[in-house]
Write a structure and sequence with these properties.
The complex is a heterodimer of chains A (505) and B (141). With 505 residues, chain A is an alpha/beta fold. In chain A, 22% of the residues lie in helices and 25% in strands. A seven-stranded mixed β-sheet of chain A has the order 7-13-8-9-10-11-12. In chain A, strands 1, 2, 3, 4, 5 and 17 form a six-stranded mixed β-sheet that branches. In chain A, strands 18-20-19-21-22-23 form a six-stranded antiparallel β-sheet. Chain A is globular. The N and C termini of chain A lie far apart (70 Å). Chain B is an alpha+beta fold and 141 residues long. Helices cover 38% and strands 31% of the residues of chain B. In chain B, strands 1, 2, 3, 4, 5 and 6 form a six-stranded antiparallel β-sheet that branches. In chain B, strand 3 and strand 4 form a beta hairpin. In chain B, helix 1 packs across helix 2. The chains are: A alpha/beta (505), B alpha+beta (141). At the A-B interface, strand 10, strand 15, helix 9 and strand 23 of A face helix 1, helix 2, strand 1 and strand 6 of B.
Chain lengths: 505, 141
């Protein structure tokens, strides 16, 4: 007699189906559960963790979890110091990451991160049907049907948290001959090799840093110069922990950074490869011989047949076109969570992207997405607390000074309060800033944290009159990032004097 | 629309703004600028807001609106955002998506270096801005 399948969520009809058991999928599942939305979670993997089950290869994550912070770990404000724990209301499921780190670094190792995510699933009481891969999608009237080897899952709304995880190789001759980043072997197997890495973003520099002591020579090439995060004043660019290869190049130690496009890659007559490049500076051809070539050329979205269903995708990465609530712009009811959320650019002030591709941004995006989904598909709305007019300015400046959502997602998420004359001042929670400033709603105020082109971090206030576009006002910064100054209070008081007076019944 | 790196470079070569660039230069442009998508109804430039960027339309359509009044439409190959960056002032118009939009984006602080690196693009941009100015003068007279 066949063994009974003990896994949760057998095929069937569910209000919502979540696909994926990485941070995005399990965070979305947590918020659905907390709002009482019945759902199934299916995953092709045998355990939770998503990309953290394999990556990054070398060293550690790029996201910090600071064990010694100015606030207690059970405080919401600790989330700013802990970019790797998922969000939860229950104390036992909060701030798990720092409890699992060995104390040698504030950047967790990959196994520590994987353990953090597994612990979250367990402590938050989440369930996942593992080894159940989503293989296809179709419509049946108002419902979506997801095909798996176990059977069909039908749902009113589907959340795809499948990562930006499919290796991307450019359609340039010879890339079929070489390894992708995901195929990188153990470091010692590159001992004495001449290595050519295509790509000068973090994954390329991660490999160069990890293989620096092993390879005989490392060449990194891509058409434009490497950007450094310390210069962009954001997480955009190569992170500080990976700049050792740059110093090595500057000192002539055997690392070379080329600004060049790859024309073709071919096998060298003796052994290894010849990479033919065109230099960006002067258009001259340059051939480089290498024993190993690794394409650190990024990833695309494994969206399978969703485009056939009408889901519009864009660009080289094949990210879906989405609304500010991570819903497909072309197929309502299809949502996305996790790193796919980076396809929603938001305000992108001064060209600085949000951190939606990382856990510390995506976890908040999942919350705004699930709350929107719950309200629009299932009529589940969270109560909105009333705020006394005299408390509003303190609250706004306290949020700008400390709120992890605003600091993790600068110019992207904002704390909003509606100023309706009939209902008084109501806490609208954390919202998409682009949505707030573009939608015609009741009179409202929102505060965000922003960085300008000089790296100055300051609060920005957006005040919206009923039926009119929001008006931006930048507040004054502070060298210690405490924005609760007399000057800012006076500025806010002036901006809100009319609006809050109207909101007081 | 999803496209490979080579398809993107092919598309860039067909746009007037980049018509004078060699293939390696187009590859560089494709790496320097990021692809973005905006749903219908979203503002991309916002009148009076700081920190805007430079955009080149690859697909879709936008409306130029001043104080809510539509003044023009822009589509594939058109660009916007350069005026406020060059002048260091917030935009004087909203740019609103009318058809699902696929653009290339460059952060405002990077535009000057980008134009200095690619003077052919600067010349094409200057021509386009001169045309806009001439048409605006005709419209007013």
């Amino acid at each position: 007699m066949a063994e009974l399948d003990q896994r949760p969520f057998p095929p069937g009809d569910y209000p919502v189906v979540v696909v994926g058991s990485g941070p995005g999928g399990i965070q979305a599942s947590y918020f659905l559960k907390s709002l009482g939305i019945e759902h199934a979670v299916i995953s092709a993997d045998p355990s939770p963790g998503g990309m953290f089950r394999r990556f990054p290869f070398f060293q550690r994550l790029l996201s910090w979890t600071k064990p010694y912070a100015p606030v207690a770990r059970d405080d919401r404000f600790y989330e700013w110091y802990d970019w790797n724990s998922l969000l939860a209301d229950e104390p036992g499921a909060r701030a798990i990451m720092p409890t699992l780190m060995d104390g040698t670094s504030s950047f967790p190792s990959r196994p520590e991160m994987e353990a953090n995510l597994a612990a979250f699933v367990e402590r938050a009481g989440l369930a996942v049907r593992y080894d159940c891969s989503w293989e296809g999608t179709r419509r049946d009237g108002e419902r979506f049907v997801l095909a798996t080897p176990d059977g069909e899952y039908r749902c009113q709304a589907a959340i795809f948290a499948v990562g930006v995880a499919q290796p991307y190789l450019p359609d340039i001759p010879g890339f079929d001959l070489v390894a992708h980043y995901v195929d990188t072997r153990a470091a010692e197997t590159y001992a004495g090799k001449r290595l050519f890495i295509v790509g000068k973003e973090n994954s390329g520099f991660e490999l160069a840093t990890g293989l620096l002591q092993w390879a005989q020579r490392i060449v990194l090439a891509s058409p434009r110069p490497a950007k450094l995060s310390v210069n962009t004043h954001s997480l955009l660019g190569v992170r500080a922990r990976y700049v050792l290869p740059i110093e090595d190049q500057n000192l002539g130690g055997g690392v070379f950074l080329l600004n060049a496009s790859i024309e073709r890659i071919e096998r060298a007559p003796s052994a290894g490869f010849r990479v033919v490049c065109i230099r960006s500076e002067n258009g001259a051809e340059l051939s480089v011989e290498a024993d190993e070539v690794i394409a650190a050329t990024g990833f695309t979205c494994p969206l399978r047949d969703l485009p056939d269903l009408g889901v519009a995708v864009f660009g080289r990465t094949g990210l879906p076109a989405m609304t500010n609530y991570y819903e497909s712009a072309t197929v309502p009811g299809i949502y996305f969570a996790g790193s796919i959320g980076q396809g929603v650019g938001g305000m992108k002030k001064y060209g600085l992207p949000a951190n939606s591709g990382a856990v510390h941004g995506a976890r908040y995006n999942a919350r705004t997405m699930v709350r929107h989904l719950a309200a629009t598909h299932f009529g589940v709305e969270l109560p909105k607390a009333e705020v006394k007019p005299e408390a509003l300015i303190d609250l706004l400046l306290a949020e700008a000074t400390r709120a992890p959502e605003l600091w993790n997602q600068k110019s992207y998420l904002a704390r909003a309060f509606s100023l309706d004359t009939g209902t008084g001042i109501r806490d609208e929670g954390v919202v998409s800033l682009a949505q707030f400033v573009d939608e015609e709603g009741p009179a409202a105020v929102a505060i965000a944290v922003e960085t300008d082109d000089l790296g100055d971090i300051h609060p920005a206030v957006y005040v919206r009159d009923t039926g009119r576009p929001a008006v931006e006002t930048l507040l004054v910064s502070n060298p210690l990032h405490d924005f609760r100054s007399v000057e800012n209070r006076a500025q806010l008081s002036s901006l809100l004097s009319g609006a809050t007076a109207g909101a007081v019944r | 629309m999803a496209m490979t790196q080579q398809e993107l470079v092919d598309m860039l070569s067909s746009l007037t703004l980049f018509a004078d660039l060699t293939r390696p230069q187009l590859e560089q442009v494709a790496h320097k600028m990021t692809e973005e998508s905006f749903p219908v109804g979203q503002r991309i430039l916002r009148q009076g807001f700081t920190g805007t960027g430079f955009y080149v339309i690859l697909d879709g359509e936008v409306a130029v609106k001043i104080d809510g009044e539509e003044r023009a439409r822009l589509a594939k190959g058109d660009f916007f955002g350069e005026m406020s960056i060059l002048l260091g002032e917030p935009p004087v118009a909203d740019i609103v998506t009318m058809r699902q939009l696929h653009v290339l984006h460059l952060g405002g602080p990077e535009l000057e270096g980008f134009l200095r690196d690619h003077p052919q693009v600067m010349y094409r941009m200057l021509k386009a801005v001169a045309l806009r100015l001439r048409n605006a003068s005709r419209w007013r007279s």
